[in-house]
Amino acid sequence: SIIVQTGGTLIVKGNPTPNQGVTISVTTMSVASGGKIDASGTGYAPIGVTGVGPGAGQNMTSGGFQVGGGGAGYGGVGQSSAGSGGISYGSFTNPVDLGSAGGGGHHYVAYPGGPGGGAIHLIVDGTLTVNGEISADAGIKPNPYGGSGSGGSIWIEAHTLLGSGSIHANGATSDGVGGGGAGGRIAVYQETSTFLLDGQHVHAKGGNSG
Fold this sequence. Notes:
Elements: E1 2-4, E2 9-11, E3 22-26, E4 29-31, E5 36-38, E6 105-107, E7 109-111, E8 119-130, E9 133-135, E10 153-162, E11 166-168, E12 185-193, E13 202-203
């Protein structure tokens, strides 16, 4: 069993080579209010100033004043800036892919985009209680010019799902000229549940462009 208490964070980090998230298989799991299972920003990261991943945003790393890289795609397409947004990819029924990195941008020199979200697969034979957060959001990009990363993936298989917390794999918003990242993918399977599977509690939203 795993218990994440209030104020605690269980950081989940996969391996982008080869596109591998983390699977946790337990009898019971509980995430208390104020606790978090977090794979945010642990997906594909830029290599130098080049976006990486199946949905990497287009690089625009030369030739312009405030030229924005494209946002990364995953569950949807990334938002375009000067560079095109990345493509959608992966399974929506069994999501295991990492989120992609945004494309590089340019402002006199080249700047990298932001990293994608990681991938979490939870297999809970008994009860999963989520009153806190389970997150695979994209990471924050370090500058205004690169594109933002896409959200990662969360795949939950539980006998019973309880609680009133949140499960999210959101793309990152661009705070400058780069494109926003697409949302990731979430799949939830359970036998019985009182957890509300609505847009307030479960979301994989794309980030806006600056």
